[in-house]
Amino acid sequence: MANKTVPTEIDPTDFVASVEHDVRRGDAEVLLELMERVSGCPPKMWGPSIVGYDEYHYVYDTGREGDFMKVGFSPRKANMVLYLLPGYDEAGEMLDRLGKHKIGKSCLYINKLADVDLAVLEELIVAALAHFDSE
């Protein structure tokens, strides 16, 4: 079974400009630039609502394989979701300094960027990208 979330031809800048919520749109504009600068890669839409940067190939023990973004974000109605794979197991100290957030398995949920320290968020993005370089 292939990954359901695949790259599309949607323009990430147009997608961000279409975000209805003013704060979420402004935060997405900041993340659009920040993640491009840190990753050194242009943004690419993954599915209809995720902006991703760079990509990697994965192969599971089951034999399932595919390609996915290394880092990305999605400006959802409830909050901003950041995808900083492969997770946050080793990011405890950075998360302690980040500010108001919630985490899932590989998602970081932020209500608005004003709630977090952008320098620490950048550290998390750098750490996520470095994980792939160390494999």
What's the end-to-end separation, in Å? 24 Å
Give me the number of helical elements: 4
Instruction: Give the low-pLDDT segments.
Output: none
Q: What proportion of the residues form beta strands (DSSP E)?
A: 25-35%
**Annotation, overall tally of beta strands:** 6
CATH fold group = Aspartate Aminotransferase, domain 1
Whole-number average pLDDT? Answer: 90
User: How do the strands of the widest beta sheet line up side by side?
Assistant: 1-2-3-4-6-5
Percent of residues in helices comes to 25-40%
Itemize the secondary structure elements and their pairings.
Blueprint (H helix, E strand, L loop, with lengths): L11 H6 L4 H18 L3 E4 L3 E10 L5 E11 L4 E5 L7 H7 L3 E2 L3 E4 L7 H16 L2
Antiparallel strand pairs: 1-2, 2-3, 3-4, 4-6, 5-6
Structure, explained:
The longest helix has 18 residues, at 22-39. Strand 5 and strand 6 form a beta hairpin. With 135 residues, the protein is α+β, with helices and mostly antiparallel strands. It contains 4 helices and 6 strands. Strands 1-2-3-4-6-5 form a 6-stranded antiparallel sheet. The protein has a single domain (12-133), classed as Aspartate Aminotransferase, domain 1 (Alpha-Beta Complex), CATH 3.90.1150.200. The chain is globular.
